[in-house]
Amino acid sequence: TKAAYASVTGDDPKLLAEQAVRKIREKLAGKVTLVGAGPGDPGLITVKGLAALKEADCVIYDRLAAPGLLEATREDCEKIYVGKENHHHTLRQEEINELLVRKAMEADRVVRLKGGDVYVFGRGGEEGLYLYERGISFDVIPGISSSMAGLAYAGIPITHRGIATGFHVVTAHNRKDELADIDFMAMARGTDTLVFLMGLGKLPEIAERLIEAGMPSDTPAAVIEKATTSAQRTVTAALSEITDKTREAGIGSPALIVVGKVIGLRERLNFFENKPLFGKKLLVPKIGEQTSGLTEALTEKGAEVDELQVGRIEYADRTFDKEKLERVNWIVLTSKNGVEAFFRDLFASGLDVRSLAGARFAVIGARTADYLYQHGVKADLVPEKFTGKALAEALKNVLKQKALVWYIKAGNADSSLKEAVGGLCHFEEIVAYENMDALGEDSRIEAPERYDGVFLTCASSADRLMEALDGRIPEAWQKPGKIFSIGPKCGECLRKYGFEAIEEASESTYAGLLEVALHRIR
């Protein structure tokens, strides 16, 4: 502080005070990183942007930043929503600026997560200037702008040789919420692609002004809602008809307006909306807060997926005895959670994989085997069918009477495996974690009929789904192609509640569920 005061110069007391505060902040404050989140698809954030999120102590995020990106942050990261919608702002821009400075004084690494690119109509420049003027160090990590990516996901290249050699990207409204001062005459004369952001409410005026300026009324136009997300919808029409077509389709914001001949390529380049599950709305009950791998697989095929967290994993925090562990002949793991729980306890006991030299590993499923391998151990036994019954049969062929077997399990898992093979060996059930109920007051499923498919990955999820439904099965879910089960045990649980037309995966994996969905969902 003394050094900061000593370094300032001048005669104006007010200026001296401002300089001193700036110098102190430069010494004491953390760094703010302005990060472009991309256009909506969470996979379109940059590698550098994702790394900044993972290291952040505090994230201040916008409405258009994909919510899934927040899952990359640490558990102790503070997350503050400052989203803005038309005529409704959580915080005014001036308050957001002040919040950035305040959090920079409290935390070492602050991320300002902004939809699209930081500087493309995102007021990122204003925030950067505000930080500079107050002596706060900042970085900028650019993001992919919806003005280009949104068009690409709708099958519209923003430029194309022989059709459009350039493009204009403009915001459609000014600070007074009026149509922006746009040179429509220049736009109408050229052949460049025109992209209007934040302009859905000004669409009639935009079309009218372009036609008045001399643009042919049959020029192709498009409006893209929620671009790059699974809820994307696109309307195309002649410029003179685009307003009516958009209104008839019920298109809402956020939306992009596109005008130009490149729209004629959409039928051949429309890769995203032609995905097999595009337009389907699905429900995935899940265990834990992280995005389910099944959700990722369904989304990759174009589906819009809602996740319902029905369970959470609570670890038992056991301590293993080194001498006893070294006498274990087989360790049985039936899930990713079991693998994670076992190695947490192993390392917490001051041990590592060297203590496992005498043990062999049996697992259910390729995914569990892969997760085990990530911990440095290759599975010795993986049954061809990924079921508990198949695992029991496979173990019967390899177990010796004096073998010591540890089954790493959840507290609420049944004892069918012990009943099947316990007579052939010394079989110990090690409860390493609990699958706890995570349904809250807001977990009730509203309008269940809107879902085209519901995917259950374990019996406990089926039990809790019924709790979220208040015990009543929606009539729409009794039709074929609606309820999907990962395997026999889950299917048996569903039938217990009265579900009838259950689509069951032939292989008890996410890949098996995805395969049956592609064939059966309607």
The value of Rg in angstroms is: 29 Å
SS field, number of helical segments: 19
**Which overall shape is indicated by the principal axes computed on the Cα atoms?**
globular
Query: Strand percentage, roughly?
Result: 15-25%
Helical amount: 25-40%
Q: Strand arrangement, largest sheet?
A: 16-15-17-18-14-13-19-20-21
Features of the shown structure:
522 residues; alpha/beta; 9-stranded mixed sheet; 21 strands
How would you describe what is shown here?
The protein has 522 residues and is α/β, with parallel strands linked by helices. 33% of the residues lie in helices and 21% in strands.
Concise description?
The protein is an alpha/beta fold and 522 residues long. The chain has 19 helices and 21 strands. Helix 4 crosses helix 5, helix 11 runs parallel beside helix 19 and helix 17 packs parallel to helix 18.
Write the layout of secondary structure elements.
Elements lengths: L1 H5 L6 H16 L2 E6 L10 H9 L2 E4 L16 E4 L2 E2 L2 E2 L3 H14 L2 E6 L9 H10 L4 E4 L4 H8 L13 E5 L12 H6 L3 E5 L5 H10 L7 E6 L7 E6 L3 H8 L5 E5 L6 H4 L11 E7 L5 H8 L3 E12 L6 H4 L4 E4 L2 H13 L11 E4 L2 H9 L13 H9 L7 E7 L5 H6 L4 E12 L15 E4 L2 H10 L14 E3 L2 H10 L4 E3 L5 H11 L2
Parallel strand pairs: 1-6, 1-7, 2-3, 2-6, 8-9, 13-14, 13-19, 15-16, 15-17, 17-18, 19-20, 20-21
Antiparallel strand pairs: 4-5, 9-12, 10-11, 10-12, 14-18
Helix pairs in contact: 4-5, 11-19, 17-18
